[in-house]
Sequence to fold (300 residues):
Amino acid sequence: MGVQHFWPLQPEAEAPASAAPHAALPVSAVSVSVPVPVPVPVPVPVPVPAAGGLVSASSAVAQALPERPATSAPARPPMAPARPGGVNAPAARTATAAPVTLGARPAGIESMDWATLRDTVSGCQACGLCKGRRQTVFGVGHTRARWMLVGEAPGEQEDRLGEPFVGRAGQLLDRMLTSVGLTRAEDEAERQVYIANVIKCRPPGNRNPLPEEVAQCEPYLLRQLALVQPRLILAMGRFAVQSLLKSSEPIGRLRGRVHDYHGVPLVVTYHPAYLLRNPADKALAWDDLCLARELAQSAP
Ligand code: SF4
Fold:
């Protein structure tokens, strides 16, 4: 099953202007299949307001840890070392400096069911991104999917339609899923994926979300992860990857290995919008999908 059959490598038209710039930022195409020791940045807790008082981002995350026990990744692909530290190290951030407006985060996210979680997100005003959204983009897919895909933040079309990965990038994602026997359409948990973003509201001008906004929104993603209990996470795009792994390294140096996100094996790959502009890297994305499929098939 060759990659060419499913994803023609010839250049495709440029992604529409509505595609989020943070979803199409150039990244290194260098593939490093052997883990490389990297400097470990110093963790910097980000104070954020929450119901009942100030909490740090790290404590908020700890409160929302998934319920499922840690999943052991297969021994063959080496697990990358944990990377504590700032979500957006200075070298990785391109967002313009702007005043950060934070509100109270709803309490009890870590114990919410699907309906309550969805309603809570739709009314969330825990950061300033709520002011510019048409609607929140919660997530779609099988609530017990084996594969959980995590993207970055809603772009213009996602904000309008309320669904992640739409437009030409979404169509390419659909072809990528089909190539490994998966779908976002209604199906059994073995084949239907669950898709969510790190950030649920569209940043103005499609800028990169600020670290304080990521910290405010991450408990929702963690609760989705705890409810789905996937066998693996496929993190797509530089911003999503760096946010989840708390790393400033480019995707080219993070892909090809198995990482860990709160006990769930995580595989890194390029965002479909990036692949539309850089079709030569579809071969690398195919390798990433094959690694993810191997993990999913070998997980208990
Ligand atoms: S981005 Fe997340 S934390 Fe901010 S308002 Fe939207 S749902 Fe709430």
About this structure: The chain has ten helices and eight strands. The domain at 46-66+100-298 is CATH 3.40.470.10 (Uracil-DNA Glycosylase, subunit E). The pocket of iron/sulfur cluster is lined by residues 121, 124-127, 129-130, 136, 199-201, 213, 216-217 (CB under 6 Å). Strands lie at 47-50, 53-56, 140-141, 147-151, 194-197, 232-236, 258-261, 264-269.
